[in-house]
Amino acid sequence: MILEQLKRDCDAALSSWAAAQGAAACPVAAWTAAPEHVLADISLPWPMAAAKALKRRPLDVAAEVAALLAKIPGVAKAEAAPPGFANLTLDPNALDQNLREVRSAQNHGFDPAAKRNILIEFVSANPTGPVHLASSRAATLGDSLARILRRRGHAIKTEYYVNDVGRQVRLLGLSVKARWEESRGEPSPIPEGGYQGEYIKDLAAAAGAEASRWSPEEFSNFAVERMIADHRRDMEAFGVRFDRWFRESELHAAKGLDAALAKLKSLGKVYEKDGATWLGSSGEGSEDDKDRVLVRQDGQPTYFLADIAYHLDKLSRGHAELIDILGADHHGYVPRMKAAIAALGYPAGTLHAIVHQLVHLFRGSVQVKMSKRAGDFITLRELIEEAGLDACRFFFALRTANAHMNFDLELAKKQSQENPVYYVQYVHARICSIQREAASRLGLAESKLGAVSPSAALAEPSERALLLKIAWFPETLRVCERELSPHPLANYLMELAGLFHAFYEKCLVLDPKDPARSLARLALCDGVRAVIADGLGLLGVQSPEKM
Length: 547
Description:
By secondary structure, the chain is an alpha/beta fold. It has helices at residues 2-21, 46-54, 58-69, 92-104, 133-152, 167-183, 198-207, 216-237, 248-253, 256-266, 303-316, 333-343, 380-387, 389-397, 409-413, 420-442, 454-457, 461-471, 473-483, 487-506, 515-538, and strands at residues 32-33, 42-44, 75-81, 85-90, 117-121, 155-162, 244-247, 270-273, 276-279, 292-295, 321-326, 351-355, 359-363, 366-368, 405-408.
């Protein structure tokens, strides 16, 4: 794609120039689209950083850099601008070539040099209840990020960690047992800290008469297996398929906790105090603020040790980097886990933690607080049934993970341009309709578009704006990778759709009196369609041909 090649050429030219000037350590700055008031396509702030290193006037450096970049293929013009920008205008022929590549290629944004080995763990909801609203945000973040990173060329695996061991699992079994006994006319209260909601009654009903012989542990095992099956169905309904469902019980069976503790001891990272075993996680350079207990005074391992063992297991499987997508209540978890991974001997940057904030559900201005099935939270299944899969995934992808989110069910169901996902999907459907009309009414089949040179026939600013926006698609995926978030892509698609709506209002696409311009505009429309279909697919959202 044009911007990817152009960026490589410019970066190489700038690096060579900087080295010759004695500023070899000056990093090449990120590119940005030129602001609307600037008559250019790309703005480079790099000359200001280089000027500081060289102790020269930024505008003088920008002038030299502009003269250098003006010679690069694909650049029609390069100019310096205060206080120290190099502004580039792209060659129309390069935009033509980019449009042809976009319409024919299926690997937009692929970087052959990219090869990070990453395991992404996300959702990982405890199997003690249905998958809830907050987990649906994690599912969107994790699955969309995995799709984008795979497109970029990285080796990506996805994993769902099932906490099927411990007190909460025992309470789940006791809660189901109590409801089962209650259904047989035997008064039996839910244990303190146990689970409520209709789904517990459903589990008890599914247990059947044979449960009369079950121990509390068997009730727990039955309930956990049922809940895991439900979680799998929910994830599949949400368009998410994990490479592995990893159970904590596997870790215990393989003596993973013992192995992790032994490794930490061999590295001199643990000590004994007050009858407990501690990780010295608060040392110099650590992100953690205090040491942590790994084994309690009674000899029982903490949840923290189990989590360390799980992360060690992930790294031992050959993954060089780990991405954990965590709920809003896990802020304090991040520094201690990073400290633990450092204690195990792995370098900084091995763990990337994404903490997503809460989602509040609304119907217009009224907040929805209760679920009919789960009791005190809204389930993912309920959300999909009412709002639809595409709206759910697109709405969640629009916001950064660290921002609180209000999800409006009424807006998600609207079949109008007020609804963000409808706004984008409608452009794809409209272009498909235009293409059908072009073939049937004017005989302008897609096969005639291959040799079209759009820039020769496109003079409207709205047409060039679309050509430029299409060219930014691979760079948008690069930003998603850098920020570990799909939100730049979702917002890019909104902006692209907005530019198309503006173009469609001003420009007649199918004009029987001007077949050359019609073909050029059809090629432009097809480029927009291809990018929207590709972008929505990376977000797990459909691209309908009719709406």
